[in-house]
Each structure stands twice: as structure tokens, then as C-alpha cells.
Amino acid sequence: MTLYEELKERGLIAQVTDEKLVSELINDGKAVFYIGFDPTADSLHVGHFMALCLMKRLQMAGNKPIALIGGGTAMIGDPSGKNDMRKMMTAETISHNVECFKKQMAKFIDFSNDRALLVNNADWLLNLNYIEMLRDIGPHFSVNRMLAAECYKQRMERGLTFLEFNYMIMQSFDFYKLFTDYGCNLQFGGDDQWSNMLGGTELIRRKLGKDASAMTITLLLNSEGKKMGKTEKGAVWLDPEKTTPFEFYQYWRNVGDADVIKCLKMLTFLPIEEIKKMEAWEGSELNKAKEILAYELTNLVHGEEEAGKAQEAAKALFGGSDPSLAPEYRLEASDFTDGAIDILSILTKAGLAPTRSEARRNVEQGGITVEGEKVTDIRTVYSAEQLSAGLLFKRGKKNFKKVLF
Fold first, then answer.
1. What are phi and psi of 244, to 5 degrees?
2. Is 291 exposed, middle or buried (0-12, 13-18, 19+ CB in 10 A)?
3. Mind listing the pLDDT tens digit for each residue in 194-253?
4. Looking at the annotation, which residues are catalytic?
5. How many C-beta atoms surround the C-beta of residue 132 within 10 A?
6. 3-state SS, residue 35
């Protein structure tokens, strides 16, 4: 099975400009390809995870990845799939986020010996002369065609700003710049980026008379058609300070039965033949498949040691044996009033409930236990002394935290 055939078998390919050309490029290890990441936060998240895994797969086959961090395009904001305009970020915030991205990407991509490149489009976009840009690039874009693009439709209903309207031109210019400076012949992106990517291939054709290719990756959706990677607390991050290895493991351990095989195919590096055998699994066997998925992905992001710890902690907690393996949350002196803290504050601070109102509902409905004892009184308080050795707080069957001071 060729690499391209495997990508299709895993369900990773959504759209492609020229299947024969792209398959030959990546199968022969001749693709110099890029994927863009806009630094809208100080950590990559599960939404970026599949792209990083794809870059790793292609690099392992001899192709050269270019990780493009959108320090320039982040100043504008991608309107794709958004009802409202993105919040504007300062240059300092973007610069900080770029540095965070660089560290995380190195876990997936080998940047040594020119095997991969990491570039920031701020290096060329922020220095463009507006009039020169209009004269040089503007004639190659049809406003009529741009307005028909899927990435603008949703925003058109609420009011598309001229600022956001420029995003396609900026992304297209990125591809043109990478093509001319680094020989980049292929762009990958999420399926919602198709219009922007075609803009790049068309700009290269019009400006240089040469062909470049584009391929979109299937979006990671659950069986209900919703994007995966969200919890009550928000995004599932790759930074262990924002989403602990245990929480990361638990997210994948708890995916729906209908999604586990798809996730194994699209995200893990297990042989496709091995995963196909799991397609016939049912009941308790599916739980085993989820454990495999959770371990493999936690290993990819956080390493073998943390993956092993998370797996052991989950088994101990759900087996009711060793609560000392639960993830910890440490309270500070400022969290206490007169030496005590109420249960609603503990639940929200420890991330076991997103809001106080949700914490109140969980307590009143009997969904909270502390050290195995059900707590139903929202006025319950705990002293600093009680929490000095740590108490195990549990919400429902799958959310645990050892809270200590």
C-alpha cells in the first residue's frame, strides 16, 4: 500500500487538486509541503493535532514539511466558520504564542539538518507596501469569485469586514512566497480552508505560469457532526499546564463508541491492518480500543512516561483502588476566607465544574462525592487543615481531582 493509499484508507483526504500528481509527489518523497497555524492562543490544541500527525507521516516517508506560523495573518483573523469577527490581538501576544507553538511542534516534526522548516509569515506580510501589493497581487483575484467562497458565506450574513476579506489574499500570498523561496509545491489544510488554498494555487499559476497543488484534510468530527476537542472547560490543549496528561488521556478514553475506530485510523500510527481488526469489536472490547487510543495519543503528545502514568491512574481510579494517583489541584492561601473554602469554589477552581451554577446543580443532584461520601449541601466548607493532606473530589463517574493545600 502506498502512502497516499494509506491516507485514503485512514479517511484523512477530503479534497485534492490533482490526485495523480499529489499521490506521486508524496509517494516518491518529493513533496515540499506546508500547513499553516495561526497563533490565536499560547498552545496548540486537538484541532491542530491531526495536521501535526499528517506532517509527521509525510516526513517519515521522505517529504519535507514547512510549518508556517501565521504571525502576520493572525493580525487579521480567519473568517472561516466564524459568525463574528475574531478578537484583535496585540503584536506582543502573537509573538509570545508563536514561541509556544515552536516548542510544541518540535515534538512531532524533526527540524534538524534542514529536514523541515519553521517560518513565520509576519517576516514578509508585515513589511508589504500596500500600493505595491494592490498592483502586484490585486489583479489576480476576482471579487465575484471570492464572495462565492464557502469561507465567507457565514460571515456575509452578519457583516464581513474588509479586514477579514483580505485573509484569502494573505494566505494565497503565503503559498506564492513559499513556492518561490523554498520550492514548496503542496499545501495542506483543513477542509474549511479549500477556497483559500485554491486562491494560492491560482495566484502561482497566474504569476509564474507554474502548477502547485493543494489537499485538504478531513475535519475531525464526532458521529453527531460536531468538531472534536472540546470539553466543558473548553479546548483540549497540547500544553500539559492547560490540559494535564491525565485529562488528555481521559478525553480520548471517553470518546463515543461510534468514533473510536475513526480516531484510531486518523490520529494514531498503529498499522491500518491492526485497526481494521478492531472494527468487529463490540461491548467491552470497544473499551479496550478506547484505552489503546488514549494511550497512543497521550504517548505522542506527552511521552511514554506520562502516558503510562495516565493509564495507571485511570485504571486505579475507576477500579477504586488507589486515589493517590488522581490528578492534583493545589489551592493557595488567597483561595480561603477565614481559613475555609466552600465546595462550590473548590469544584470551579479545580475544573470539575465550569461555573458555580453548574457546581451548585451537581451538588444538589447528588453528583459530587468527597472521599467516597456524597455531598448534597452547597454550604459545605473545608478548612485548610482538612485539605492539607488532600481530599479526593469526584463529579460523576469520570471526573476526579485530588484537591490539597
1. -65, 155
2. middle
3. 888 999 999 999 999 999 999 999 988 887 788 888 766 678 999 998 888 988 998 999
4. 40, 45, 48, 82, 86, 171, 192, 227, 230-231
5. 9
6. strand
